[in-house]
Amino acid sequence: MNIKFLIFDKLTALDAVGPYEVLSRLPGSEVEFLAKEAGPKPTDTGMLSLVAARAFSEVDPADVDILLIPGGEGNRPMLSDEETLEWVREVHAGSEWTTSVCTGAMVLGAAGVLEGLSATTHWAHMEGLAKYGATPTSERVVREGKVFTAAGVSSGIDMALTLVAEMTGPKVAQAIQLGIEYDPEPPFDAGSPEKSDPAIVEFIRNLEGQPA
Amino acid sequence: MNIKFLIFDKLTALDAVGPYEVLSRLPGSEVEFLAKEAGPKPTDTGMLSLVAARAFSEVDPADVDILLIPGGEGNRPMLSDEETLEWVREVHAGSEWTTSVCTGAMVLGAAGVLEGLSATTHWAHMEGLAKYGATPTSERVVREGKVFTAAGVSSGIDMALTLVAEMTGPKVAQAIQLGIEYDPEPPFDAGSPEKSDPAIVEFIRNLEGQPA
After folding, report:
1. What is the CATH number assigned to the segment(s) A2-184?
2. Domain B2-185 has CATH 3.40.50.880
3. Closest of B155, B105, B193 to residue A178, by C-alpha
């Protein structure tokens, strides 16, 4: 199972590393991080870099079984980069699964993958999906055929476990979940806008800026 | 707030990136990844590298406010590496908070930090804590004064949010939680050994190998 993560400068690290930690443990999987140019990609905080092993142009789109696109403010230039969008389209044409986390959905949208589908993204960017012909859906993980979109940042862990269960049945997914001891105990029940103080929701909405 | 993550070859990526995603969003924080030698550090799967910006020898231990040590099979050599352990001891002597995720606790233990304290680690490695004079404790996040230890892999997210709440009060922690949309919905209630199929527990215990 060839799994490719498409990363970029100023990605949100956990968008990628949450599902990486799940999918890399799937027996027989091979996860590789790609970008427009190979090399270290600084995250959106500038405080960490993840390494893209190769340029996506070195990878035959027909060889990609699962594509995952994480989010982050740095993906905005990709939305109009025809080389990237064409590669995503070609991958999607032959993929088993095409997936995104957070604002990675906008790249799928710009490539035309989400046209006519329900999809999700980070709650503060939900409206941006409509311009790509998608129906914004406030669920943590949204599946439409072979397309999975996940909500903000940490939701990629839930999406990846759901995907593994879909591919292999519950036992492998449960084993991976136990391996990463994913028995979450958030100190607050405040992880979605519906559950949060409206002043905090407004604060984060302003921080996130305009939808992509 | 100077926050240093001590990484190494064959670390478990999510151990570090979960709490990084939380702590890097703390206003005024500066997170930096350090290692014995600067440069890309391949994770335990070999499928991703995180970059250590500097060698820890370049950082004055007195300048570290928060230390975080992630886990991963690659930390075993650190347990007998006196240069690393001495740096950890010196950091701990002046830190505001000294923390670990997963088997990162073994490095704190080997440095003498956990002597006489309750502590936690990945469930499959829990017994290993005793040899460092710690009392193994099956809780997801364990606090002893300024020392926080977290359970396996994904638990670092909960630990970091708890730490932020402790430092700044609940509102900042809740804002970060909402920013990363941490409203977990695991597809199974199977993330701890108590909740899992015993056959799966045994399988993962064997995969994890002997306690460090």
Report:
1. 3.40.50.880
2. yes
3. B193
